[in-house]
């Protein structure tokens, strides 16, 4: 609420947040103080409240601007733009005009307006405009379920939940990730079965973050996979925005994003022990099966040459997923075990002959 400086002295620390408007009325000087975002409407209402001059009777002569009177042509005119100008108020009070109806309207308006300043200032102080701008920039521009699969609206809700996830939003702001399209994948198109079992691709990243696809549904299309697992897959695919192959740099960034997402999500954050945060993340053995980074629908890395080495000249295992590396290692161990078992049988057979 504005105050007449002839009646009350403002505290020094409050003056920094206020603007003062000085004017004369019937030759008497008056000065009202307002919050920094106040407009000409606030001045008019304060004149009505303090001097009992209803808006319909108010006329403000402002140097270089001319005559201003309600209803104002520019009701959003900031008071900060006229504080340095000479202002003269003309108008009759309610008593002078003898208008009882105007006095009742004035009292009702004053009672309604009492709560406005505190709400305005509180909203201004707590609003994080920078954060909102960054979240609007570093996000998933488009969400797209597959319309030919059952209940696409539910898939859209799932994608929206990922987009609005407080941890995902924090990580995308920090790393400045903008992904034009987040969509779901058709499970049947990314499931392979052979004699050794079934392999399911959980996520794909095309063109370093141009499109991210996530396996939301179960194989039978009758349900949806665990949210935390899908969110971990999304962290994995976001890391592919920077690193294509599954090398050390990729895994370091992937784990960093996972920790940042969990840390920002206060709803699932671990308890503290001795004032140190406990990270309830995933062990390095947890896997997200994907095809790494894509370019134009082709794999960036991972296709071995006939000699068994990458086209980049590095070891053939660099372009493999961790699932493939672990499976290959397990296969080698089983092969060695069979060879050792066969050698032992041959020795036993030879010694008995």
UniProtKB/TrEMBL annotation:
GO molecular function: proteasome binding
Biased segments, Basic and acidic residues type: 321-339
Residue ranges with Low complexity bias: 302-319
SUPFAM superfamilies: Ubiquitin-like
Pfam families: WLM
Residues covered by region (Disordered): 302-353
WLM domain residues: 131-335
PANTHER family reported for this sequence: DNA-DEPENDENT METALLOPROTEASE WSS1 HOMOLOG 2, UBIQUITIN AND WLM DOMAIN-CONTAINING METALLOPROTEASE SPCC1442.07C
Name by which UniProt lists this protein: WLM-domain-containing protein
